[in-house]
Design brief:
This protein is an all-alpha fold. It has a single domain, classed as Amino acid/polyamine transporter I, CATH 1.20.1740. It is built from 20 helices and no strands.
């Protein structure tokens, strides 16, 4: 039975009750937490990708992606408030829809976290190489700083930063709240400087044609830009520490997403209005996809003189309009701040693996704890190897899209779980209740499906292949070794055995 083997919600909640947290966060703190978590790789890196897909219409893409995130966030918040324990959407699905659905959600989350960490590593590499060129006039051959899809051989800087973050996670390095606050401040100051310098010199003529590739291009860009909003779940996971969550959770969620959407639109306006954001076409005016050898060749032909060709879009824009030093500062801000995002993504991945391993769905060897560092070192190293390989050989746009496919699947599953639990367990205490659940949850599901099918056919095929592989692994290995299936009692003390993860970034 598909919806069999449900892990008792009461057993899961027993852990949270033993580790009840002090409710101290208000609406403002939650909003700041969300802004810090959301503003990151997407806006620094994917602006060029979005311009190639949608042209100036990418402004509308930011709005579409933000709205889908908003309704998904409200559903996520109800589950996070009820089940404030490790495992994210995987745990929620296990408690409501059973083991097979939970396995598929956990399998999809591998795409979200590990491949997202690879995408951020590639984005960091682009800014780092640009910064080296500006600061020291070093011109590194493209073969060693881009993957084969992107006109090179291997992206060594991306591989190096992923390896360095893996080493930090194995050792158990934890970001303090102060360091995290500084990194968030660096990102926000850099983007604010960008907006202040570009908005006054916008030329309205740069906005036409607004949608050179039609609404399909805007939808495709929205599906990619969705990556720029991932991280808002940091707000929903703070539900247990929130004062008056019924009031403050929606303010924090919607408030942070609204602020970030406005920020993103201002930045997009600055790029479009100053240097233009029209797509680069092939020699026969054919549409070229981001992160392909064909686009790399077209960019070489025009000497990279278009924002869609840049691997450091915001810094490139500032340099192009006569602010090279500020462009250098923005590049430096990205270099400083983005590794913390890689750290957060990789920590999320290892925690999902850890919980699945502890449930018996993956080999228990994966949940082994290092005797000295008290970290799940086996799965951290394994994750790090894959992230480094993704970063070395694939372009940022493809990685972001594949990551989004996993995220959208997980968000849709959470939205379904919220509705199911309202029917099957209406008396359950809900610190936060999603308003208008029978409208919000279906809107979230429809939005996730819409963005999923706006991804490229290649990305969708990759996701389907990954899902089929997941089913094979489940029925050949995981189903027979599941603790729930074998009737073993669940213990969640493992959460206390590993060091807490990085703060939001």
């Amino acid at each position: 039975m598909i919806f069999g083997r449900i892990k008792s919600l009461d057993a899961i909640l027993a852990t949270a009750e033993k580790k009840s947290l002090h409710r101290s966060l208000g609406a403002f703190q939650l909003t700041m937490l969300g802004i810090g978590a959301v503003i990151g790789t997407g806006i620094f890196v994917l602006t060029a990708e979005a311009a190639q897909k949608a042209g100036p219409g990418m402004m509308l893409s930011f709005v579409i992606a933000g709205l889908v995130c908003a309704v998904a966030a409200l559903c996520y918040a109800e589950m996070a408030a009820m089940v404030p324990v490790s495992g994210s959407a995987y745990t929620y699905s296990y408690a409501v829809m059973g083991e097979l659905v939970a396995w598929m959600v956990g399998w999809a989350l591998i795409l979200e976290y590990a491949i997202a960490a690879g995408a951020v590593s590639v984005g960091w590499s682009g800014y780092f190489i640009g910064w080296l060129n500006t600061s020291f006039h070093l011109s590194i051959p493209l073969e060693w700083v881009r993957g084969p899809f992107d006109g090179g051989i291997i992206n060594l800087p991306a591989m190096a930063v992923a390896t360095a973050v893996t080493a930090l996670l194995v050792k158990g390095t934890k970001e303090s709240a102060t360091v995290n606050a500084v990194l968030v401040g660096v990102k926000i100051i850099a983007l604010t400087m960008f907006v202040i310098l570009t908005i006054p010199v916008i030329k309205t003529g740069q906005f036409t044609p607004f949608a050179p590739l039609g609404f399909a291009g805007i939808s495709g860009a929205a599906a990619s830009i969705f990556f720029a909003y991932v991280g808002f779940d940091a707000v929903s996971t703070a539900a247990e520490e929130t004062k008056n969550p019924q009031r403050n959770m929606p303010i924090g969620l919607i408030g942070s997403l609204a602020v970030c959407t406005i920020f993103y639109m201002l930045v997009a306006s600055g790029v479009i209005g100053t240097v233009g954001a029209q797509p680069v076409f092939g020699p026969n005016h054919e549409v070229l996809s981001p992160g392909t050898p064909a686009l790399a060749q077209a960019c070489t032909a025009i000497q990279e003189q278009a924002v869609v060709c840049s691997k450091e879009a915001l810094a490139w824009t500032l340099k192009s309009i006569g602010y090279p030093f500020v462009g250098w500062l923005v590049g430096a801000a990205a270099i400083i701040a983005l590794p913390s995002v890689i750290l957060m993504m990789m920590f999320g991945q290892t925690r999902i693996f850890f919980v699945m391993s502890r449930d018996g769905l993956l080999p228990e060897f994966f949940s082994r704890i290092h005797p000295r560092f008290h970290t799940p070192h086996v799965i951290t190293i394994l994750t790090g190897i894959f992230v480094a390989l993704f970063a070395a050989f694939f372009p940022v746009g493809l990685l972001a899209d594949v990551s989004n496919s996993g995220t959208l699947f997980a968000f849709a599953a959470v939205s379904i779980a919220v509705m199911v639990l309202r029917r099957t367990d209406p008396a359950r205490v809900r610190p936060f209740r999603t308003p208008l659940i029978m409208i919000i949850a279906p809107l979230s599901i429809i939005g996730c499906v819409y963005l999923f099918f706006s991804l490229s056919l290649f990305t969708i095929e990759l996701f389907v292949a990954w899902a089929l592989l997941g089913l094979v692994v489940y029925f050949l290995y995981s189903r027979n070794r599941s603790h729930v299936g074998r009737g073993l009692s669940e213990h969640h003390e493992g959460d206390a055995e590993i060091h807490p993860g990085p703060g939001a970034a």
